[in-house]
Amino acid sequence: NCCLFDMANVFNGGFWLNGVHYTEPKTVQAAFSVGSDLIIAATQNQYGGFTVPEIDKIMGVYAERSYNKFKNDLYTYIKDPDLLEEAALARTREDIRQGYQCLETKLNSINNSLGQVPFVTISLGLGTGKWEREITKCVLETRLAGIGREKTTAIFPKISFLHRSEVNGVPG
To answer: For 23, what's the count of Cα atoms within 13 Å in the CB-facing half-sphere?
Structure first.
């Protein structure tokens, strides 16, 4: 009874939610934040579980946009290509972490119309692109770190790590 939500299609070109037009996110942090708003709004109108399949593939596009934005912004200050790459990558990883923390915090603290936090699952692990793998890595690291000052374990979203021998079945 789980809804499989096509977030990528909803994001594409922007969308309307409760009378407000959301533009397509320009960064990965914004995509996670807008995604959490979308998930909460959608779960208000249904009963049962809610799944965002292959979130690594959805958010990988926005991570690349963040990286390109940071690289362009930092070019004014950093001319060395290796240092520029390193700085843009570090900022993008932080953007991913902060964005996922936002999603995780909202999903564990905002109740739906039934007075409970929505039962949300995300799947990841099959993305093979650079940014898709970064999303997977950051999501798993963030989950292990816990939420808030007390570092409590998040209840939601449930994480389904997808496995295929040819994609992630070999160490490294």
So the answer is: 3
Give the Cα separation of 138 and 96 in Å (integer): 7
Contact 8, 58 (CB under 8 A): yes
pTM: 0.92
Instruction: State the Cα angle at 6 between 59 and 66, rounded to 5°.
Output: 15
- How does DSSP classify residue 20? E
Residues in contact with 122: Cβ distance below 8 Å, sequence separation at least 6, in sequence order: 51, 52, 53, 55, 139, 157, 158, 159, 160
Average per-residue pLDDT in the chain? 92
Nearest to 118 by CA among 31, 22, 2, 7: 2
Average pLDDT over residues 54-80: 96
Contacts of 148 (CB under 8 A, 6+ apart): 105
